[in-house]
Design brief:
Blueprint: H1 3-19, H2 24-34, E1 39-44, E2 60-66, H3 69-82, E3 86-90, E4 103-109, H4 118-128, E5 129-140, H5 146-163, H6 171-177, E6 180-188, E7 193-200
The structure holds S-adenosylmethionine.
Length: about 210
């Protein structure tokens, strides 16, 4: 799908993301993950700011990136509501660059399913996150259940057309290729949902 169509698709979904942030289990995972964020935080695919209630607002300065201007409008409202210090960039993350070691922490929740090249994006995280910093991920991908994963692989093209994201990303495999070092990984719902805390490995060639 062309990028401009994808952006329009997410523009249309912004209100839905703004209004549907109350799934108990997912909200709990966001809370567990986001409490580990600190300092200069880059949140990619920030969407409607669903993580903003969970940041320690005394301790973070967020740069939120999203290519959907409607999502950014919703995220700005969330930042005001939860009084988190945040600036926003309406940009395609895959085209964006920051200086190496720009951030203490990089957060992605439910965004790595959308990028054309998730390994390239994870390698950017490795460069942009300073040594000793944290990369915090909450993503959905391929189940470890053979029947479910087969179904996910079959429906992926249709799923992508409808939702704008892939349902067949293999996170354990992606992390091996990412240059990041996984410190902690938890998986839920037949391993479809994954929470990852990782750190950059600076000796890797990016
Ligand atoms: C499934 S939503 C998740 C939103 C939010 N992170 C959350 O947890 O609810 C994916 C978000 O990533 C954004 N996105 C997808 N591809 C992008 C890209 N290449 N550059 C910037 N933002 C992107 C979409 O506009 C959308 O807001």
């Amino acid at each position: 799908m062309k990028k401009d169509r994808l952006i329009k698709k997410f523009d249309k979904q912004a209100k839905m993301y703004e209004n549907n942030q109350h799934h108990h289990r997912i909200a709990g995972w966001r809370k567990d993950l986001i409490k580990n964020a600190y300092g200069k935080v880059l949140e990619v695919g920030v969407g409607a700011g669903a993580n903003f209630p969970y940041y320690n607002r005394a301790n973070v300065e967020i740069t939120g990136v999203d290519f959907s201007s409607e999502m950014i409008k919703s995220a700005k409202r969330a930042a005001d509501r939860f009084q988190v210090k945040a600036e926003f960039m309406t940009k395609d993350l895959e085209e964006l660059s920051f200086a190496d070691n720009s951030f203490d922490c990089i957060v992605s929740t439910l965004s790595l399913c959308t990028y054309t090249d998730p390994i390239a994006v994870l390698r950017k995280f490795n460069r942009w996150c300073r040594e000793g910093g944290r990369v915090l991920l909450m993503e959905h991908g391929l189940s470890s259940n053979p029947l479910l994963s087969l179904a996910q692989k079959i429906i992926d093209p249709v799923y992508k057309q409808i939702s704008g994201c892939h349902c067949n990303r293999n996170f354990p495999e992606l992390m091996k290729k990412s240059h990041l070092q996984v410190e902690h990984m938890e998986r839920y719902w037949s391993d479809i949902f994954v929470l990852i805390q990782a750190k950059p490995l600076k000796e890797q060639i990016n």
